[in-house]
Amino acid sequence: MTAVTHPASEDTSVLPPYVLALKERIAYLPEQHVARVLRAYEVGAVAHEGQMRKSGEPYITHPIAVAGILAEMGMDAETIIAAILHDTLEDTSLSRTALAGEFGETVAELVDGVTKLDKMRFSSRQEADAESFRKMLLAMARDLRVILIKLADRLHNMRTLGAKESDSRRRIARETLEIYAPIAQRLGMNKIKAELQDLGFRALYPDRYRVISERIRAVLGNRREAMGRIEGALSARLIEERIPVRVVGRIKSPWSIYSKMRSEHKSFAQLMDVYGFRVVTDSAMSCYMALGVVHALYKPVDRRFKDFIAIPKANGYQSLHTVLLGPFGAPIEVQVRTEEMDSVAERGVAAHWAYKTESGPANSAQARAREWLASLADSQANTPEAAEFIENVKIDLFPDETYLFTPRGDILSLPRNATALDFAYAVHTDVGDHAVAARVDKKLLPLRTRLESGQLVEIITAPSAVPNPAWLEFVVTGKARTAIRQYLKHLQHEDAVDFGHRMLDRALDALGTSLDAIQPEALDKFLQKSKFKRLEELLSDIALGNRMPDQVASQLVASRGTSARGAQAQAAHPSEKIRITGAERGVLSFANCCHPLPGDDIIGYLSPGKGIVVHRTECPNVAELRKSPERCVAIEWDRDVQGDYRAELRIEVINRPGVLATVAAAIAAADSNIENVEYVERDMAAATLLFTIEVKNRKHLAEVIRRVRRTGVVSGAYRYPL
Q: CA-to-CA distance for 435 and 445, rounded, in angstroms?
């Protein structure tokens, strides 16, 4: 884009009123920075010339409004310039190079961070939105100001949502409530979070919003005198004790009332029967002194005191919370904090730019935000699917936190219902991967134990321990879920490579040769032709059933100049069967039609994408499978097989009270777990039950059947299918 012609920024008389209003808001910036902001307006106005919003206003009014929101937070000039230009790369002909040339690389990075990806590259709007969101979060990990611009952008869009169509309004409102408001909360930006939630609530559920808002107004009107008396009593007593304070009443928002009505199953009357006040003073010491004065004025409610000054929330929030028994029979909720803590509670990470302190709460909020963003960056690196990444982010945008102590006295915050295993992964991925148990308040407990605030947690590890697929059923944090999935995918790939190697070796052995005998040049040529970068990819593809080992072997032999038939004639002996242990993750699965067990004669069938499906040789379906001999794999059980395998028992019983419990007790006595039980047939005299159980091998199953037959209530027990 070439030079821009527009009235000079020095001549403010020709500037529109909305730009003059922004100029007043940024009076805290040095003059030269104000001039750069006005220059950004000139460039933005020309770039967006002719573009209109749905409301009919010139488009440039939107980015100027976004810049105004950020100016209220006291943000720096680069953020405000980037806000004015935040839609130029996406919606205008202005190039990134021109942007960086005039306003610097930092502004270009910020604008690029909030620019959506081109939707033409994706198969659906959902996929495009997920990828654009992932891109924004990664940019946010590099520079927090990206998300501040995005939140301000979303806030202004929500304020002007009325011009949109009904479906768009609902979609944008839902996204705001599910993602953007929780991000604002995670970054400690309570003021923006509260407005996003209420605007989202009003757009998504207009009738519910109207009813609750009207009831709040009615209740407050009736209680204004009572609130004034409590506020006066608090102020008078604190001033009497020479503690510098300001006391303000707090009013619950429609969204917070609605959320608590749903989550806590409380009525509107129960939630509104509370008086809320905030006591703001000059120092942390004054906070504790004020707390003592407040407790002397009104009696505190037992177990309702929380000290978030000594133990700040995950987003840097600090305050003392207490609940008192008030003079009107209703509880009084009081928050005590310093002016700076109050600013951090309202602005969160944005308070850093306003306060510029080297330590303390303002930087604490930013440091904690950076820790969270670093964990997000790690998570996305190991999560190829954008949609899965977004789900992990949603898991971490938790409203309730559990605060836990490490043996060194460090504090970790985890979501509500987090387990000891989540704690292990929060300490370090290696600790999680090798965890075996936990000591919670010095008591030995399993990894699935749910933790509560204030507990001291120590993780016990073992070098031989590795992640288990079952762990995914009880972890709740995105970090733990991503790390476990990554490890299992790596193991699956290793097992697939190993199994594919054995299958190809067996196929080559049948042709009288081996993989080592294939010339490296011939192998490289075959891999290139088949579009594989490495041999491991070919071997994994064979194990997953996407390529037939016999066909690959024949092609490799042909590449040596020997015919497959001639090579086969050279084979001195038939190939041995491939031995399996049952632990080949992601490569083997066991057929539900016959439930093969260690000790059974088995056959493998290569199913595309699934790998080898194992059947018993006497399975009724094997005859059909043998019609595709190239997909059949000769396999057998290894001598040492570990683990539990599913089996089905068909048991015919005398139909009388307690018979099911008797049979179940016999199965349990044989050290077998029951997964499922159902009645197949039933009449007055007899019944047929089908038990799905877990056993270690054929011998174990035989022991279960023996014990069941000895109960005296069974007329027949046998493996199903026969």
A: 12
Beta partners for residue 87, in sequence order: none
Catalytic annotation, pick one of 57, 72, 76, 90: 90
Q: Give tens-digit pLDDT for 157-188.
A: 999 887 778 888 888 898 888 888 888 887 87
At 28 the three-state DSSP class reads coil
Is 441 marked active-site?
Answer: no
The verdict on whether 165 is a catalytic residue reads: no
Question: For 180, which DSSP code?
Answer: I
The pTM for the full model equals: 0.60
**Cα(50)–Cα(70) distance, rounded to whole angstroms?**
25
Strand order in the sheet with 632-633: 588-590, 611-616, 602-607, 632-633
Going edge to edge, which strands form the sheet with 645-654?
Answer: 673-682, 686-695, 645-654, 714-720
Question: By C-alpha distance, which of 120, 121, 154 is closest to 136?
Answer: 154
Which residues are 435's β-sheet partners? 461
Looking at the DSSP assignment, which residues form a beta bridge with residue 690?
650, 678
| Range scoring the smallest mean pLDDT among 2-6, 192-196, 302-306, 461-465 | 2-6
Q: Is 189 exposed, middle or buried (0-12, 13-18, 19+ CB in 10 A)?
A: buried
Residue with tokens 């991000």: 183
Q: Which of 76, 91, 127, 541 is flagged as catalytic?
A: 91
Do residues 66 and 83 lie in contact, with contact meaning Cβ atoms separated by under 8 Å?
yes
